[in-house]
Amino acid sequence: MSSTPDLGPLPRRVTVDADQVRRLVRDQFPHWADLPVRPVAQSGWDNFTFHLGDAMVARVPSAAEYALAVEKEQQWLPVLAPRLPLPIPVPLAQGRPGAGYPFSWSVYAWLAGSPARGDRIADPVRFALDLAGFLAALRSIDTDGGPQPGKHNWFRGATLRTYDAQVQRALTALDGLLDVDPAREIWAAALDARWDGVDVWFHGDLAAGNLLLGKGELTAVIDFGTCGVGDPACDLAVAWTLLTADGRRALREHLSADEPSWARGRGWALWKTLVTCARAVGRTDEEATDARRVLDEIRAEYVSGK
Fold first, then answer.
1. Which listed residue, 106, 135, 252, 288, has the most CB atoms within 10 A of its CB?
2. DSSP 3-state assignment of 302?
3. Does 104 share its domain with 226?
């Protein structure tokens, strides 16, 4: 695998509606044909998600690139689930193209909970420790035969240099609008931070929407489309994107993250944040405001540790 693969243009998404999913279910899983199908309120970008009755969900990739993860999830999530301290999605069935829909898709058991958000977390340190415990368990699972970084997960778990061109374009776009010099220094330090090369399992996208809360506590982790085996530093990005300063310290201590790992994790957080900031220039919506907040968190934490 090239260390700097061409990520290409943004995926070309298809449209999927509830009637189409009803036809898919009726044709391929007739024993579920009488169950109601309705969109999940917060469906996500990579997949369209639909309630199938009250206890299941149909997860339908929105583009060919996202459909690459279906076989992986079907194979590996049942292996990972029994070894983890929190529930994760476990596939109940795999669908095939049909009813005008071109990709494979999946049926999962429904996991209840609300997406994590700072003001919904009851105890930020407890949340961070629960997340660290989950990551520690995930990292301990045997990686033999596990999926290496590639197109199926947008090269999560590979070198950060995969994303250097995107970061440089974002820095150029933001120059003059923000003080980008600290970001350049942080990114350079992340690129220079070496990984020991020992493969471990990682989730790959610990965004707030993939961490579910119940009564303010972490109750489940979902959306393993970017999971794989490789460098787990990508999972540390959540320390800056969601956790408080105290939670960040708790996560690092529990995972015994050394300085190179922490620097790479900071780099993963910076990559996504810079790209979001560049895309959101001139906007004042929630995404733009949150991206600028995360960028401030990254810079402040980096400066405080120098």
1. 135
2. helix
3. no
